[in-house]
Write a structure and sequence with these properties.
4-stranded antiparallel β-sheet; globular
């Protein structure tokens, strides 16, 4: 299991930017594909982005392509989500997740079985 703590959320105006961070504990962080998900009020939690254990490949939901960038620093045990050109519909609680060791980064878009989750960080975008 990996313990995850998100930070970096806040209240921003539409068009602004934020960088979310996720700090992980555990010696095997570099083994895990990592991802970001979000849950807006009254909606299901949805996939946002994922990254392979090495950081060599990334995957994005269509709704965020071109505006969001996921990255990781295995030495620091951190994963990041750079969010640009924020829109009011990006308002949500953003969660960091570590996939199970048998789940690929690409598969994180469709399955959340055996994931480890952080508690989330709130992002609110005003129009």
């Amino acid at each position: 299991q990996v313990q995850l703590v998100e930070s970096g959320g806040g209240l921003v105006q539409a068009g602004g930017s934020l960088r979310l961070s996720c700090a992980a504990s555990g010696r095997t962080f570099s083994f895990y594909p990592m991802g970001w998900f979000r849950q807006a009020p009254g909606k299901e939690r949805e996939f946002v982005a994922s990254i392979t254990s090495s950081g060599s490949s990334t995957y994005y939901a269509d709704s965020v392509k071109g505006r969001f960038t996921i990255s990781r620093d295995n030495a620091k045990k951190q994963v990041y989500l750079q969010i640009n050109t924020l829109k009011p519909e990006d308002t949500a609680v953003y969660y960091c997740a570590a996939a199970g060791l048998t789940t690929s980064a690409q598969a994180m878009a469709t399955t959340t079985t055996s994931f480890s989750w952080g508690r989330g960080t709130q992002v609110t975008v005003s129009s």
